[in-house]
Amino acid sequence: EKSMYDCIHKMRTRIMTSPKFNGDRILGAILFEDTMNREVEGMPTAEYLWTKKSVVPILKVDKGLEPEKDGVQLMKPIPNLNTLCEAAIANGVLATKMRSVINQADLTGIKEIVEQQFDFGKQIMAKGLVPILEPEVNIKSPEKQEIEAMLRAELVEQLKLLRDDQKLMFKLFLPTVDDLYEQLVTHPNVVRVVALSGGYTRAEADALLARQHGVVASFSRALTEGLRDDMTDDEFDALLDTSIGEIFAASKASGVKKELHAHE
User: Fold this and answer.
1) How far apart are CA 78 and CA 89, in angstroms?
2) pLDDT tens profile 224-249
3) Cα–Cα distances in Å, from 120 out to 127, 179, 236?
4) Which pLDDT score is estimated for 1?
5) Is there a catalytic annotation at residue 171?
6) How many Cα atoms occupy the beta-carbon half-sphere of 218 within 13 Å?
7) 101 strand-pairing partners
8) What's the rounded Cα separation, in Å, for the pair 49 and 76?
9) Looking at the DSSP assignment, which residues form a beta bridge with residue 99?
10) Separation between Cα atoms, residue 44 and residue 168, nearest integer Å
11) For residues 259, 152, 126 and 119, what is the CA-based torsion angle, rounded to 10 degrees?
12) What confidence score (pLDDT) does residue 263 get?
């Protein structure tokens, strides 16, 4: 297992130390706990990202998924969440991320998954970090569009229960209906809405993202598409530059101001 993590960190280090990877086009980078506890060029990873690259370090805090029930997979318990948040702050991390999955349009399950995300989110906010809530909709679900509408409604309801000073982010799958998440993008408690791309090629994800006004990319798989360990530094940096450039352009296109309109 250590050898596997060593290989993973080697590739991540190559990406982070590339001259093409910096805060000019990248807002943040999500780290596993193992990555946070390692170093890049002799510096703790989070410190390196912020001080050398001007990229916000974000920590993944969930412990994986429970078996499916009521059409969803909740997160496993996070008994050490407070300790993990304290370690994140000590390492210079500014935000967290946690993922659960929705497979079916089951209102009971969707309510439960949103409540769990917000419950953990409030615990994280109380520690002084910004939580990224990621209730991922299964791209393969035949009910994807219906799930997304139900999810949005539940997210809006939970946002009503927050205090003015409680700020969070959402990481959501690119929706079937364009601009479905506008109400979240403009909500005063929402710092930002970012989109995940799993299951799409980078070109497909970029095209969909450009139509979601106010949403920016959180494309891990699309970003690393085509990158290989055996590439020369010039080849690696050139492809990474292309990937970042295309994703940045799609995010910038989605940032064009657009009048908010309600989806019934």
Assistant:
1) 17
2) 999 999 999 999 999 999 999 999 99
3) 11, 27, 38
4) 66
5) yes
6) 23
7) 73, 136
8) 29
9) 134
10) 25
11) 170
12) 29
Examine the pLDDT at 257 and tell me if it is beyond 50. Answer: no
Q: Where are the alpha helices (DSSP H) in the chain?
A: 2-17, 33-36, 45-53, 81-90, 107-126, 144-159, 182-185, 202-209, 220-223, 233-254
Sign of CA dihedral 75, 141, 170, 225: positive
Among 53, 97, 111, 171, the active-site one is: 171
The CA distance from 150 to 127, in Å, is 30
Half-sphere exposure of 79 (CA within 13 A, CB side): 0
Catalytic residue selected from 134, 148, 154, 182: 134
* 222 pLDDT more than 50: yes
pLDDT surpassing 80 at residue 258: no
d(C-alpha 239, C-alpha 207), whole Å: 19
CA angle, 14 then 207 then 177, to 5°: 125
pLDDT for the residue numbered 264? 28
CA distance linking residue 137 with residue 209, whole number of Å: 16
Residue 204 confidence class, pLDDT cut points 50, 70, 90: very high
Residue 142, SS3?
coil
Count of residues for the chain?
A: 264
CA end-to-end span of the chain, whole Å?
49
CA distance 203 to 201: 5
Other Cβ atoms within 10 Å of 237 Cβ, number: 17
Residue 63 known to be catalytic: no
